[in-house]
Amino acid sequence: MTTSSTLDFDVEALRADFPILAERVHGKPLAYLDNANTSQKPRQVIETIDHYYRAMNSNVHRGNHFLSQQATNALEAARRTVQAFINAREDREIIFVRGTTEAINLVASSFGENLRKGDEIVISAMEHHSNIVPWQMLCARKGAELRVIPINDAGELMMDEYEHLLSDRTKIVAITHISNTLGTVNPIKRIIELAHERGAVVLVDGAQAVPHEAVDVQALDADFYVFSGHKVFAPTGIGVLYGKASLLEAMPPYHGGGAMISSVSFEKTTYNDIPFKFEAGTPHVEGIIGLGAALEYLRGIDLDAVAEYEQELLHYGTEALLGIDGLRIIGTAAHKTSVISFMLSSANGDVHPHDVGTILDNEGIAIRTGHHCTQPLMKRFGVPATCRASFAFYNTKEEIDALVRGLRKVQKIFA
Ligand code: C6P
């Protein structure tokens, strides 16, 4: 039975899988509300990594001894788990990278080789820096132009403007599925359809989507879909680039080194097939195996129930925060995930988000404050930074109540 939800969703049983949630911080029970930044890890992931180092540790794809084969099998099994999780057509379409940032840089650098002077890349006003800067670097290299889809005051993409921006010059549309700062869920399928009508290729930044909803890359018809393991209850330092095989095959390698080659001589090197062509060097073996364990864990949970429960938290949190005089929410899209950015003011005006975060921390409450790597978005809303509470399926309404009490305390201190 859950104490916190009206749904048939056993939060307490799920919480028991996450050892860190039982920690106390500054003598208070931890309320971890910083999940858009990074998620906590279930014991199933921790135990998988522990087992890997106790029983299997070895380099992969390079040894014919028992341990190396065990580790290689586990790694390739994890690749198939990722494939199934996002419904990719083939496992060779799954490239392991360090995270979302590296995946986008890989595509900008490698696929970007196709671009010519005067070509255009379309991004949006709500992108994370890692889906802005690699494209700016590509534009500088190739003489291409960056076009930015504007957003309305609710933090929703202006789709009419998007249609106007698309042209035969558009070669790449790089867009976030869900905004890390606003929580806005973008109409990604429609965005992809419109881009394809113009012959453009679409990269979707799924860093904030995969933790919250079932993603089907074939149903979306995404050309590239990228995400980070650490936001989906897996270790840091591991991420995924999904790409359609036909695109990946035609792209030049990103890094050169071991494993990505077929043969090397001083005269000529030939490259390995995908996915290995893009996986130079010893991979993050325990990270990959841990990612597989995390996605298996998620497959064991009803993801529709997760999405429904997180919506319940979002609505409860929104109502509760709006009950505080002087609090305003930044990002009020009709379709949102469980992320709430806000500004808090006291009788003396806005309290700087960093002060809010520090006082909440003393209460055991972890939120993120700052620009969330979306400085252009801060400018759009005329704020230097925001406070951001972001919920995962293991959060509770009681933790949101603690957040509200903490914010009232901040207001008293700054009164
Ligand atoms: N957002 C946040 O607190 P990396 O660092 O490569 O794992 O992920 C980068 C990234 C890319 N796109 C989106 C939409 C993201 O949210 C992030 C990471 C964290 O919002 C840390 S800045």
SSE arrangement:
Layout: H1 11-15, E1 24-25, E2 28-29, E3 31-32, H2 43-56, H3 66-85, E4 94-97, H4 100-110, E5 120-124, H5 133-142, E6 145-149, H6 159-165, E7 170-176, H7 188-197, E8 201-205, H8 217-220, E9 224-228, E10 239-243, H9 245-250, E11 261-264, E12 269-271, H10 285-299, H11 303-322, E13 327-330, E14 339-346, E15 349-351, H12 353-362, E16 365-366, E17 368-370, H13 375-381, E18 386-390, H14 397-413
Parallel strand pairs: 3-16, 5-6, 5-7, 7-8, 8-9
Antiparallel strand pairs: 1-2, 4-10, 9-10, 11-12, 13-14, 14-15, 14-18, 17-18
Bound molecules: ligand C6P.
Q: What descriptors fit this protein?
A:
single chain, 415 residues, alpha/beta, Aspartate Aminotransferase, domain 1, Aspartate Aminotransferase, domain 2, 2 domains, seven-stranded mixed beta sheet, five-stranded antiparallel beta sheet, 14 helices, 18 strands, 18% strand, binds ligand C6P
Explain this structure to me?
By secondary structure, the protein is α/β, with parallel strands linked by helices. It folds into 2 domains: 11-32 and 302-413, Aspartate Aminotransferase, domain 1, CATH 3.90.1150; 46-299, Type I PLP-dependent aspartate aminotransferase-like (Major domain) (Aspartate Aminotransferase, domain 2, 3-Layer(aba) Sandwich). The chain has 14 helices and 18 strands. The strands form 5 sheets. The protein has a 7-stranded mixed sheet with strand order 4-10-9-8-7-5-6, with helices on both faces. Helix 2 packs antiparallel against helix 10 (285-299) and helix 3 packs across helix 10 (285-299). It is globular. The model has no long low-confidence stretch (mean pLDDT 96). Bound molecules: ligand C6P. Ligand C6P binds at residues 36-37, 99-101, 128, 130-131, 176, 180, 205, 207-208, 228, 368, 372-373.
